[in-house]
Amino acid sequence: MRAAFAVLMVVIVGQALAQSDVTGLQCEGNYSEFLSGLRDVPNKGGYVEIQKSSVKIVAVIGFEGTYKVHTANEASVFFMHPDDELIQGSINRFTGQLQIHQQSKKPRSGDFGGFDRMWEGTCTPAHRMF
């Protein structure tokens, strides 16, 4: 009986730890807002926290907030804004390439595939300074 209880506790604790795993990344890239003509504004110091069901974005121009994971596979994590499905993004698990965009409600020709704004860059594992 004790052995079965111990095994059950290991499974429960293991599942809880797996669900609370957080991957922290530091990011730098460029922000563009196509409606205003703003293009390729450098952005350093961005931070992304990836969990099983959410992606938190901090200090990334135009796209701060907590997003829900839409789909995840071995290569990428795809996410979207919980209140606006036109705001979506993805991060490549191997290269760290992060791309977030807001699709236009009324796409216009020549607007980079119908995007109103976009952030593109690269993320690397975050390291604590102290």
The total beta strand count reads 8
Largest sheet: 8 strands, antiparallel, barrel
Return Rg in Å.
18 Å
Number of domains: 1
Distance between the termini: 45 Å
Helical fraction: 10-25%
Q: Which structural class fits the helix and strand makeup? A: mainly beta
Strand content: over 45%
Pattern of helices and strands: HEEEEEEEE
What are the low-pLDDT stretches, counting only 5+ consecutive residues below 50? 2-19
Strand order of the largest sheet: 1-2-3-4-5-6-7-8
Rough outline: globular
Average pLDDT value? 85
CATH architecture: Beta Barrel
Task: Give a structural overview.
It is globular and about 45 Å long. It is mainly beta and 130 residues long. It has a single domain, classed as Porin (Beta Barrel). A hairpin with a 6-residue loop joins β3 and β4. The protein has an eight-stranded antiparallel beta barrel with strand order 1-2-3-4-5-6-7-8. It has one helix at 2-20, and strands spanning 23-33, 38-50, 54-58, 65-72, 76-80, 87-92, 97-103, 115-125. 15% of the residues lie in helices and 51% in strands. The chain is built from one helix and eight strands, in the order αββββββββ.
Quick structural summary:
With 130 residues, this protein is mainly beta.
Keyword list:
Porin, mainly beta, 130 residues, globular, disordered N terminus
